[in-house]
Design a protein that fits this description.
5-stranded parallel beta sheet; 9 helices; binds NADP nicotinamide-adenine-dinucleotide phosphate
């Protein structure tokens, strides 16, 4: 559910519109894209749809722990998922711990950092991939899966989609996990959702849609 659709009524309308397009009776998961606008109104609509069984789980995206806690204490249903930027250069260790303590599943967006920082040519990842006879993409997805992070890699190529599923027939050793943990820069490769300038920019973009 995007920023232009925040608020109770708009969320209900956006949901109906999506269901018509998808030609489905229910959704497995529905998320609020960003923590801006009338997200409490949206959540009330989503809680209703959840209770009616039209959505099996509801969650959020790009919510930092402070916003997540605000949501937990001021709503009835706790988000099932928080989908946030997570990849080898931004590992989200503390945020994952916070979410786990609050029974919220972390889900990675941008697991390959959308190709930034030459991720597929990274020396550490390449050497681990060679050791296991796997690709760098598979090592990244396996690393996150072993950390109990849900991954949703994106590819337009069928062969890569198949490759991205082939991660359940090998295991990374603790030394591999430790080596990858050293790649963390602890910061976004895109933008910070708490940056006031970005909040303004995104909200102005919403008004023009
Ligand atoms: N909640 C949010 O704010 C948010 C923000 C961004 C993205 N997302 C979601 O996150 C998901 C992940 O997508 P993403 O675009 O962010 O980034 P991503 O999965 O990190 O990277 C996608 C890029 O990796 C390439 N790729 C995929 N599999 C590969 C492989 N096995 N080997 C080499 N290259 C490979 C793709 O190219 P090809 O397509 O050419 O294979 C594409 O250029 C999407 O569902 C997206 O909608 C959510």
């Amino acid at each position: 559910m995007i920023l232009a659709d925040t608020g109770y009524e708009k969320t209900k309308r956006a949901f109906d519109r999506s269901m018509k397009r998808l030609q489905l009776d229910y959704l497995d998961l529905y998320l609020i894209h960003q923590p801006y606008g009338d997200v409490f109104g949206s959540w009330r609509a989503m809680e209703e749809l959840y209770r009616e069984g039209r959505i099996k789980a509801i969650g959020v995206s790009n919510f930092h722990p402070d916003r997540v806690m605000d949501f937990i204490v001021h709503n009835e249903v706790v988000p099932a998922v928080d989908q946030i930027e997570t990849h080898p250069f931004h590992q989200q260790v503390e945020t994952q711990q916070f979410l786990t303590e609050n029974n919220i599943q972390i889900e990675s967006w941008g697991p390959f950092a959308e190709g930034k920082n030459n991720i597929f040519g990274n020396d550490v990842l390449v050497s681990i991939a060679e050791k296991h006879g796997k690709t760098v993409a598979q090592v990244i997805l396996r690393w996150m899966t072993q950390r109990d992070i849900i991954v949703i890699p994106k590819s337009v190529r069928k062969d890569r989609m198949a490759e991205n599923f082939e991660i359940f027939n090998f295991e990374l050793a603790q030394e591999d996990m430790n080596a990858i943990s050293q790649l963390d820069n602890g910061t976004s490769l895109f933008f910070d959702h708490r940056d006031p300038a970005m909040v303004k920019l995104l909200s102005e973009a919403k008004r023009n849609t």
